[in-house]
Amino acid sequence: MNYTLHQLLIFSKVVECKSISRAAEELHMTQPAVSIQLKKLQEQFQLPLYEIHGKKLIITDMGKEVYENVLEILEKLQSLHYKAKYSNQHISGKLKISSASTGMYVIPYFLSDFMKKYPQIDLKLDFTNRTTAIQSLLERTSELAVVSLLPTSFAVNEEVLIKNELVMVVKKGIDERKLPFIFREKGSATRMWIEKYFLEQKIHLEPPRKIELMSNEAVKQAVMAGLGISILPLMSIQREVESGLLRIIPKKGLPIVSHWRIIWMKNKKLSPVASAFIDFVKTSKNSIEHVIHQKRVIEK
Q1: CATH at 98
Q2: What pLDDT score does 293 carry?
Q3: In terms of residue numbers, what domain contains 121?
Q4: Contacts of 97 (CB under 8 A, 6+ apart)
């Protein structure tokens, strides 16, 4: 076979963009040039890598298999790149983490000292919702994910970080009985915990009694404005509670207690950088949890 790395890179970009023209734009190439390289790559395989129906590009099963192999090749090449760039004994490379949005109150504490210890490491940290964070593992755009609720569709390894408590809150001075409930969007772990709580407590809300927002920060701001009540992670609203802007509503079955954890694919060998970070977390999480706790005490 005579395909080139350049052709594989172009094909992987086409798969990710789901469009030859968009891939050409991102690669700063002309569309005919991309098409020529795709044709040359396709000539190396008996089965089609992709099909075009009208204006829609569809990746075949063979194409998906090739794409998975290309990702593995790119990961190994990236590792070689950093080994060539840093010839000393220090750990170097790129650490790619995708975190559920409320993880922004947790994961930076675990990264701070690690990044100081290994200054050659490049960090890519994405805050999104739980579903997207988990999907990033399957798509291999991240090696690690930070979530409070484990996936059920595939096996993962995990390292537990710290406790995550969810409480019901309302703007101070407002009667919560007259307010609608504010949810996170479907796919977020906060939304899943709330729905589980409502099911266990046999709480039923009529559609007019629900509001849906796209982030915990948006929910918090809406609650502070008196728009409704919600259930939120304590770590995300503790300062507002202690300053008198929000009030915790005591309810049976609350707080909901879960744990933040780092997860990665069960069958995937971690890069040296990701492995070093997991080892760092294992040895440092008790002291880091103490630091986070002390910060909250000081803020009180």
Answers
A1: 3.40.190.10
A2: 62
A3: 88-162+259-299
A4: 107, 123, 124, 125, 126, 142, 143, 144, 145, 146, 262
Inter-residue contact 143 to 97 (CB < 8 Å)? yes
Pair 34, 176 in one domain: no
Residues 173 and 250 in one domain: yes
Residue after which a domain boundary falls, among 49, 81, 113: 81
d(CA 122, CA 108): 14
Q: How do beta strands 121-128 and 93-100 pair?
A: parallel
| Closest of 27, 33, 28, 32 to residue 13, by C-alpha | 27
Residue 68, pLDDT score: 87
298 band by pLDDT with thresholds 50, 70 and 90: very low
| Bridge partners for 124 per DSSP | 96
**Domain count of the fold of the chain:** 3
List pLDDT tens digits, range 41-99.
Answer: 999 998 999 998 888 899 999 999 998 888 888 777 766 665 555 444 567 789 999 99
What per-residue confidence (pLDDT) applies to 237? 94
